[in-house]
Amino acid sequence: MADPAPPILEVRNLSKIFPVQGAFGRVKARLRAVDDVSFALAPGEVLGLVGESGCGKSTLGKTIMGIHEPSAGEVRFEGEIIAGGGFRRDNAMRAKVQYAYQDPGASLDPRWKIRDSLHEPLIVHGNMPRAERDAQVREIVRLVGLPETHLDLYPHEISGGQQRRVGLARILTLRPKVVVLDEPTSGLDVSVQATVLTLFRDLQRQFNLTYILVSHDLAVVRTMCDRVAVMYLGKLVEIGPTAAIFDAPQHPYTRSLLAATPRIGGARIAAAFALTGEPPDPANLPSGCRFRTRCPKVQPRCAAEEPALAPGAGTRAACFFPGA
Ligand SMILES: Nc1ncnc2c1ncn2[C@@H]1O[C@H](COP(=O)(O)OP(=O)(O)O)[C@@H](O)[C@H]1O
Ligand SMILES: [Mg+2]
């Protein structure tokens, strides 16, 4: 068998810690929003990123793109460091990896016409003459399926689905190679979701994109992704090919997530792995495995030691008692 292509993006031991302010501005605690996460993406791959609200998906995406400075670890694009490890900002390299905001309406300046929002990244990242920028913006607008007349509208004058398209257009003007799509279909009607997902696929082919697709909608992840990564309280707890994750999840937390979506997980998993309670305070994690307080399979060892992600290819889980 031929060697697999070298990764286009490598995330190595990446952490992002936020200080939690107490009284008088003192740091009361440290919140490990992303905790020692490692994975690699093959060119053209679509990796799904799933997990409950607050588990660190957006922080991971933003730290990969460089919106947040990593607390530890590094990110490499085609082998070169683009975040962490003493990297100094290099806009050309940085532009290769882009992050599409969860709420594009909020990320667009309400006082700016769509045209201005689309010109801005090109102005920040280069010194293209105005006419050339204009041509590029018009082309991108066409590619994301918006009429050119929308360039003269303000964000509040277009629909949620169209705002999504503008958010994507903004990013694509920079010709990225890797795009983090953060909850790209949340808040959209089902019919609009379908057309937006089709657009992502078309653009992926056209621009040779590699995606990290953050979503809490497991049906979307199942249809769109080659692999799935599961996060719990800042940690990657399982990663593997999409079919294997859905058909034979190894981590009890992955099983719980699937159980919460009966039309996907099936009634059999649902009964044994129903997820109860809220996740623990991320600024005050339990000892050992951080899922143990909610795990139906918990054993004494789980409180004493923290399981690492198993090495190897195929499905990998961070659990001492994986499988059925
Ligand atoms: N800028 C920030 N400052 C402090 N804490 C943050 C910040 N951004 C996110 N957090 C915290 O980090 C954790 C992960 O948040 P987030 O990445 O938004 O999760 P998700 O996208 O999975 O819902 C949460 O506990 C959240 O409150
Ligand atoms: Mg988020």
Brief sketch in words of this structure:
By secondary structure, this protein is of the alpha/beta class. The protein is 34% helix and 23% strand.
Structure characterization notes:
The chain has 324 residues and is of the alpha/beta class. The protein has a single domain (9-96, 176-317), classed as 3-Layer(aba) Sandwich (Rossmann fold). It is 34% helix and 23% strand. It has helices spanning 57-65, 91-94, 104-107, 114-125, 130-143, 160-172, 190-207, 218-224, 242-247, 252-259, 262-273, 301-304, and strands at residues 9-21, 27-41, 46-50, 72-77, 80-84, 97-100, 178-182, 210-214, 227-232, 235-241, 316-317. A seven-stranded mixed beta sheet has the order 6-7-8-3-9-10-11, sandwiched between helices. The chain has a four-stranded antiparallel beta sheet with strand order 2-1-4-5. The longest helix is centred in the middle third of the chain and has 18 residues, at 190-207. It is globular. The two termini are 31 Å apart. The structure holds adenosine-5'-diphosphate and magnesium ion. Adenosine-5'-diphosphate (ADP) is lined by residues 18, 31, 33, 51, 53-59, 282.
Rough shape? globular
What structural class do helix, strand and pairing data support?
alpha/beta
**Uncertain residue segments:** none
What amount of the residues lies in strands? Answer: 15-25%
Task: Report the biggest beta sheet as strand number plus sense, adding barrel if it closes.
Answer: 7 strands, mixed
- CATH fold-level name: Rossmann fold
User: How would you write the strand order of the largest sheet?
Assistant: 6-7-8-3-9-10-11
Number of helices: 12
| Domain tally | 1
Mean of residue pLDDT values: 88
Q: State the fourth-level CATH superfamily.
A: P-loop containing nucleotide triphosphate hydrolases
CATH architecture: 3-Layer(aba) Sandwich
**Terminal-residue CA separation:** 31 Å
**Text of the CATH class:** Alpha Beta
Which percent range fits the helix content?
A: 25-40%
Q: What small molecules are bound in this structure?
A: adenosine-5'-diphosphate, magnesium ion
The Cα radius of gyration reads 21 Å
Count every beta strand, where a strand is a DSSP E run of 2 or more residues: 11
H/E order of the elements? EEEHEEHEHHHHEHEHEEHHHHE
